[in-house]
Amino acid sequence: MRDHDSVPLPDYRELEQSEMIARAASFYEEIKRRHTVRSFSPRPVPREIIEHCIMAAGTAPSGANHQPWFFSAIGDPETKREIREKAEIEERAFYLDRKAGEAWLEALAPLGTDEQKPYLEIAPWLIGIFAQRRGGAEVGEERKNYYIAESVGIATGFLINALHSCGLVTLTHTPKPMDFLNTICGRPDHEKPFMLLVVGYPGEDATVPMHALKKKTLEQIASFI
After folding, report:
1. Residue 128 CB burial class (10 angstroms; 0-12, 13-18, ≥19)
2. What integer pLDDT is reported at residue 2 of this predicted model?
3. Which H or E run contains 211?
4. Per-residue pLDDT averaged across 101-114, rounded?
5. Three-class DSSP category at 72
6. What is the pLDDT of residue 134?
7. Rounded distance between C-alpha atoms, residue 84 and residue 2, angstroms
């Protein structure tokens, strides 16, 4: 391995195995309480919470440490209304014009989704997540980024987990195409909208489809060799 600048591992803490097991079990019990919802309360969420959760997302691993992501946090009511209008244009094509195809729509049927997206206006925060084709480890660089989708996907997972840990709920929304987000959020063409994350408190009428509560077992998703 070639020489490179490095420092000793700065903040690792080794734990007793009994505590490791307890923490692993505790984390599972907590994270399985995370559910996607489609009914949000307009109740405000302090910006400071969103800032810290985005900073947590920014600690995710990435290809060559280029950190090829940008998070556009949107709390302005007029901007959220514009996003809803643009998103519902795409959603009407997806659902009503059958752009998705019958197999996809059949798979979505148990979740009860449709072209109406009122939560895009009601929720206190939307977070537009962008994947950067070019960038680098330093701001202002114009280098090729690597493993972009993998890196941004991991960071998005960090963000969802951080928001859940604060007592908030989320919805992953991916209208296609999402190019309108570049214009609305003022992002350059070399950034591709990856996801629109809806964030807030659950509405009083929030429900979770029974279909969505069924998760595969450990034996169905893992093997130990």
Report:
1. buried
2. 58
3. helix 210-213
4. 81
5. strand
6. 94
7. 50
Q: Give the model's confidence band at 102: pLDDT under 50 very low, under 70 low, under 90 confident, else very high.
A: confident
Residues 6+ positions from 52 with CB-CB distance below 8 Å: 162
Q: List the one residue out of 45, 80, 191, 51 whose CA is nearest residue 129.
A: 191
Ranges assigned E (strand) in the chain: 69-74, 125-132, 134-135, 143-144, 169-173, 191-200
Of the candidate ranges 25-34, 61-70, 76-85, 96-105, the one whose mean pLDDT is the lowest: 96-105
Burial class for 180, CB neighbours closer than 10 Å (0-12, 13-18, 19+)? middle
Please state, in angstroms and rounded to a whole number, the distance separating the CA atoms of residues 119 and 1.
51
Phi, psi of 197 (to 5 degrees): -100, 120
**At a CB cut-off of 8 Å and minimum separation 6, what does 188 contact?**
182
Q: What are phi and psi of 99, to 5 degrees?
A: -60, -30
CA distance 3 to 170: 43
Do 117 and 174 touch, CB atoms closer than 8 A?
no
Q: What is the model's pLDDT at position 210?
A: 86
What is the predicted pLDDT for the residue at 165? 98
Please compute the mean of the pLDDT values over residues 83-94 and round it to a whole number: 89
Distance CA 112, CA 105 (A): 10
